Hints:
Bound molecules: FE(4)-NI(1)-S(5) CLUSTER with Oxygen
Distance between the termini: 50 Å
Structural class: alpha/beta
Strand order of the largest sheet: 6-5-4-7-8-9
Number of helices: 27
Amino acid sequence: MSSAEQRSIDPASQAMLARAAKEKVATAWDRLEAMQPQCGFGQLGLCCTVCEMGPCRVDPFGEGAQVGVCGADADTIAARNLLRKIAVGGSAHSDHGRTTAMTLLQTAEGHGDYTIRDEKRLREVARYLGIDPEGKEVRALAKAVAQAALSQFGNQEGELAFLKRAPEARQKLWTEVGIAPRGIDREIVTALHQTHMGVDAEYINLMRQGMRTALADGWGGSMIATDLQDILFGSPEPLRAKTNLGVLDADKVNIVVHGHEPVLSEMVAEASRDPELIQKAKDAGAEGIQISGLCCTANEILMRHGIPAAGSFLHQELAVMTGAVDVMTVDVQCWMPALKDLTEHFHTKLVTTSDRAKQLGTHHIEFHEEQALETAKEIINLAIENYKCRQADRVEIPGEEVDMIAGFTAEYVYKMLGGRFRPSYRPLNNGIIEGRLRGVVGVVGCENPKVCQGYAHTEVIRELIKNDVLVVVSGCSATAAARERLLQPETAVEMAGRGLQEICEAVGIPPVLHVGSCVDNSRILIACSNIVLEGGLGNDISDLPVAGAAPEWMSEKAISIGWYCVASGISVWFGDPMPVMGAPNLTRFVTQDVEKMVGAHWAFEPDPIKCAQQMIEHLNAKREALKLKPMMYEAVDQAAG
Ligand code: BF8
């Protein structure tokens, strides 16, 4: 069995992994080891389960079968599999966006417990959806925005409204290549149709639909989720908060909200401030109620309210292992079915809350927006009751909790860099043009027990900031970076190159900016568009010295995100390769040929330092193509000696 140190760089994780080993409780890492060897055909993309003439598999060594029963070859099989993954990943983000739009509609119609928290953002988003906000009363405008957002899902023809937020050159390219998404649901359905037995057998065409579907996620479903959440729950602004398992409080009732859609967690946070419930917790012997988050829900409530993040994806089992969690709620995406048996080993009550995500034998409290506050209170009451079952001698909370700054948005950059009186992206563009900043890289995505937790994320980030690359993080990567103090200006600035240091010190930011949850990767698309619009760095996103990386990815959502970045002109590095490597033409397409189509490509590099260096070379090549000045301090250092 691998050691706790080989499994995670986080001391809190290591402590809980040691406890798991002592108590002989299996975690994802153990299940991964028990699963060895994993299916090589699956890893290479060569296993086809599309129809019942199969399952078929293609021999990657060229000796056995080279086509399936229907005649599909390796490229067709792997491309179909990949397109299905993009469709699933995009559907997850987009269904989240739909939930948010439905909530906004109900709020606008005066139902439920939510309010419009950011009217300015409402007016901005209205314009992007083609609605003139002038003179409109807030509720009427919110209704029009919600309806227009919902129409984006069912659109059959034309193009998604938010595509207009991209640089003109990019919009033109999407139309020319034939990948401008028409409607969010339409692209997902078309993708699934194309992968049915006996439909599309051309890997390039399958990937063209892959890009179209992914763009419907990035510039559609995810962007709707982000924008409408800002309207409903408030746009984040930088704030100080804490992360890691140490945020759990042995003296309080602990409720951990895990999943993705913040509609419930927002209400749980609000209900936890109810004096009656606080008194009830005290009557039960606790000092109060502690809410914390896991995965992307954590990022949502952290960015907006400073509620601490107990951890990222691989912390979900480890949080339960503390013996201090009274209730863990899960909604959709990234929760492990293994939690059921694990929570039964401790006193924790696991509660599913979505009609789309249940488990036999797990307590279910169905969440509906119309009774949001009532449901949130029911959950807190359950936790208070269950607190009484907590065994004090079973509680073991690792001490680690780390300060961080989170809450940067594409809109905040205007204020942050341009100041209150002259909001602008100009200082950021100038930083790149003058060679203080080499460029910007988004390090995003999951954790995966195949990779030492947090190691690849933080090594990539350190190497980048050392080389004057401003890094933006989201999802589980953001929490991993926070644990290593990379989101603290005081400590992280020291690790940055001189040019980046100067910018961080002048503005008072860390060199690594937390931009939110995974749907908030749409903020990165908008930031890139804003940089192009500001001028001086080319006409399209693909001209910019920018890149994306997901060094520890594992989910289908990560594949969709990666593809919408590539299709938007941002090259993307994954640690583990996507399951394409058994299909030579498809591999060449995703790593090379696609560049001719959309101006960006994929790369796979598991070594974090090599991955960072490849991205730095990529940024340098973009800088050269733009004929930018050499990096300011490299030139100074060379001249000096
Ligand atoms: O959407 S980074 S493990 S939590 S999939 Fe999941 Fe990956 Fe975390 Fe958020 Ni994103």
